[in-house]
Amino acid sequence: MLPERQCCAQLCPVQTTTMPPKTECLQDRKWWCFLLSSVFTFLAGLLIVLLWRFFAFLFTRKQPAELAAPGCPNSEPKKEPKRQGKQEFEGTFMTEAKDWAGELISGQTTTGRILVVLVFILSIASLIIYFIDASNEEVERCQKWSHNVTQQVDLAFNIFFMVYYFIRFIAASDKLWFMLEMYSFVDYFTIPPSFLSIYLGRTWIGLRFLRALRLMTVPDILQYLNILKTSSSIRLAQLVSIFISVWLTAAGIIHLLENSGDPFEFQNQQRLSYWTCVYFLIVTMSTVGYGDVFCQTILGRTFLVFFLLVGLAIFASSIPEIIELVGTRSKYGGEFRHEHGKRHIVVCGHITYESVSHFLKDFLHEDREDVDVEVVFLHRKPPDLELEGLFKRHFTTVEFFQGSIMNPIDLQRVKVHEADACLVLANKYCQDPDAEDAANIMRVISIKNYSDDIRVIIQLMQYHNKAYLLNIPSWDWKQGDDVICLAELKLGFIAQSCLAPGFSTMMANLFAMRSFKTSPDTQAWQNDYLQGTGCEMYTETLSPSFTGMTFPQASELCFTKLKLLLLAIEIKGEDGRDSKISINPRGSKIQASTQGFFIAQSADEVKRAWYYCKACHEEIRDETLIKKCKCKNYVGMIMMETGMLAHNYNFEVATFRKGVRAIQMVGRANDHPPPTETPPTLPKRVHNIRGDVGKEKEITLLGNKNTPTAMPNSIMSAAKQVNKVKPINRPADKGSPNQNYNRAQQEEGSYAGYQLAYEVKKLLPTTRGGSAGTNINSNGIQIGIADDQAKDFDFEKTEMKYDSTGMFHWSSAKSLEECILDRNQAAMTVLNGHVVVCLFADPDSPLIGLRNLVMPLRASNFHYHELKHVVIVGAVDYIRREWKMLQNLPKISVLNGSPLSRADLRAVNVNLCDMCVILSAKVPSNDDPTLADKEAILASLNIKAMTFDDTIGVLTQDETAVTKQFDPDGLNCAGGPIVLQRRGSVYGANVPMITELVNDSNVQFLDQDDDDDPDTELYLTQPFACGTAFAVSVLDSLMSTTYFNQNALTLIRSLITGGATPELELILAEGAGLRGGYSTDESLANRDRCRVGQISLYDGPLAQFGEAGKYGDLFVSALKSYGMLCIGLYRFRDRSSSCDASSKRYVITNPPDDFSLMPTDQVFVLMQFDPGLEYKPTSRNGGRAKDDNS
């Protein structure tokens, strides 16, 4: 039977079903093991924490009981130190461990930031491993851990997460709450299953999708790394991270439930990939629900019902906010991309269409040499449509970013630390200038705090606010930091117009970039003016061919050969570091690589000064052919070394004697210091038009009617010589004071007329006999000196003083009451050749800094007798607030009145003044900005409508009194009083006047006889061309001028402020005003600097050029003979002598050398300081008084 059975078994084998090992393994599901491992881990940790708290509670409860229970008193002290020491050790150890763990997990330290970033990266890596397993595998899989690479990598990550969990546990202040945190549950359900998979030899995809919740930490990490800095970007990152985290986590739950099926049979599962679940959830949350994918399991549907409540809320709230944040994100909120090798500047402050258009028009002007600079504007508010259109028109060179200059994040966005400079614009029309300045100074502080070495150029409204900039530690004017004080420069321009009418227009046109186009259709005077407006100020290094020349030689060569006007040079100090700008220096020689300051039409023209080579270009007559030559680099130096340039031109510098005028004082209050004046212009004859003598000034000699011809010859010769200038050959060495004194005595004969003419002005009859101003001349004749002259020239009691720098005249402080005039006192004071300041101000109006107007008129390069008296007409309550800064400046009077009162204007002899300045300190109204100039315009029209008597105001005095006064012995040699005065204007329209305007458009209301279009630019209008109007808007161009040439502002400030220096700025910053100082050789040497003046061609030393002369001949002659540098002309607008001719003049800047001159022209010159012959009054014993310093 056995063999048969074996045979049957072989022939008919038994059929049995065998299952694959993988399927057989999955018959017994172990998902509950993985799940329980996570639950037990959580419960075990929770139990440990609760037990710890329980025992700690019992211990803390038992300890007070032991302390309160009676026991052995001797044993307690022994136990207590041990227990206390143990507690201190435990407390110290736990505290240090907690602090150490807290530093590790926080983002405050470098280690903490690295750890936080590393945890996030590994969490995302673990999530990616989950994505891979969920896409390729089933929910549960039987595979040995040693063969599963993804599980091995994930286990390594989980070991790191476990260590990080314990660090967080130690750092937690409340352990129980830490156990219940969301990220703690993430660790519970992801870390233990990875360890259990090694033991079971299988993997369960489980709840590893919870790692997606780590995406919620993205905003925190980006903040730790200083990537997210704005609130909107942080909020956007939070919303996006929450939405994505919830979305991916819910997709993982659906994937797990649908691929597992319902417990416990797990028969209704469906195969869905993880990304299908992601698609399904986004469609469901958006309430679309296409129906192509749906849940089959009961658990999946149940979860979906509850999830929709949360998901719809998140979707409905987060998506609109995300879209809003993304959609409303400013298009100007990006970051500036700095191109390598290209410079850029940052402009902030007052950014409006008007300010930006003025700035860009000048900054990007075609006359500038290749401007390869990008302009980046930073402002808090987005630009309006008009400004946006302006940016689009300049999109290649201009960018705008929205942000605050006070925010370092925004400074980083515009790359301030890499910028070439930062410019801060001010609002010139603000209602509170001090608040505007404070805001701009804070901007500078923010910029300097972010980058202390960046160059900053700032506009300020008020002069006294400049002191606050000096408090910034990194503010350094030597490194290019500069401040453009609008009040200082504006009033400085106006002050120079008091000395040389029209000079403000000339200077304003020089530093503004403008192109001129003459036309045959326009009037001749407009073409001449427009040609001058095309001139700008440039700097260029002088070629080696100039080395060794004196400044007059170099200036003559530049004008005649190169068609350039050389104004100044930069003179380096002995150490080669410090340098100063010297304007028309006397006797300075050009050194190698000297920087020159030129007036020219374009930057290309100025290059001729660098290209010029004596060897190659000396014979060239056409200046346009002067180009760079091959020998330029060395021939000039060789010629200089071999002495080929050593031509000794003896340039004789003449001393100008100014025209003399007299002021007669009658019936004044005894305690009032009367004004005195002799202007620094040459005498001019009267050019009669329409019976008016207001155009020119004249010297009139009035004698006694009874003895009209009894004038001594010496006085007649003095009257003749005031119109002549005799060149003086000065010795090379200065010599000692005694030598100068002897030289003065030797030349006394030839200059007797000069000295007598000088004294004639001072010798006026007084109304009080035996006054303190009585001197005895060398002939023993008692001569009466007017009260004001007695105070000015009583050298035995006072001496002339200057401020501590020697740059300005200074006097001891006077109270305001001493200088106040009432209308009667002013009317009885025959003022002449003075400056009238019509000031509109309320008692609480912002201070405008009147010191900046008066200081240029008190420069020390004027002699004391040349100082123009300043009479301020306005509210004394306002002037009292300004007086602290004016009390040390001599020759100031105040009339408490109204500039609109004709009686007050007549009292101060506005028709006899050298200049009438109309200013307003009132705050413009926001309602209608065009009304800001209403007071100034009304005052201007009021003066122009006035008429005056055609007299010179000399009152007839009793002949007997005059005879006694002049000739006590009865020998009347001179006849009557000798009064030298300018004749005043009969018509108010001919009164020299300059009006300050706030709005440019209001210039059309100043002249009723002009035909200017209201839309005409300010510089093209007749009042501005004639120098009778000035607006602060013309100073906008100084920002770009200062950026391209930091020395240009120093030159302009030196010209218009009378010589303000950085040292003086520091003194004035103290707030105590000018400080007087004893005269030293060094301070007196500061007086020897050039100043602005006006010379007439009608008579005087240059009269020969008035008749059909050429400007080039005038330029060379004035430079060689008198050291004067001619810079322009002031010409009558109407050249005819008809009755309808206007007395207005206009400015011609740097005319060409072949420009024809007219006898009525006046010439703008930079004249040398004239030490002259000092006035030496005789003492009572017949000896000479000691010299003054004037």
Characterization of this structure:
- This protein is α/β, with parallel strands linked by helices and 1190 residues long.
- Among the domains are: 29-48 and 79-200, no CATH class; 228-329, Helix Hairpins, CATH 1.10.287; 343-480, 3-Layer(aba) Sandwich (Rossmann fold), CATH 3.40.50.
- Helices cover 40% and strands 11% of the residues.
- α14 (353-363) packs parallel to α39 (1037-1044), α19 crosses α20 (503-510) and α27 (713-721) crosses α29 (752-762).
- It is built from 43 helices and 28 strands.
- The N and C termini lie far apart (157 Å).
- The strands form 7 sheets. Strands 17-20-19-18-21-22-23 form a 7-stranded parallel sheet, with helices on both faces. A 6-stranded parallel sheet has the order 5-4-3-6-7-8, sandwiched between helices.
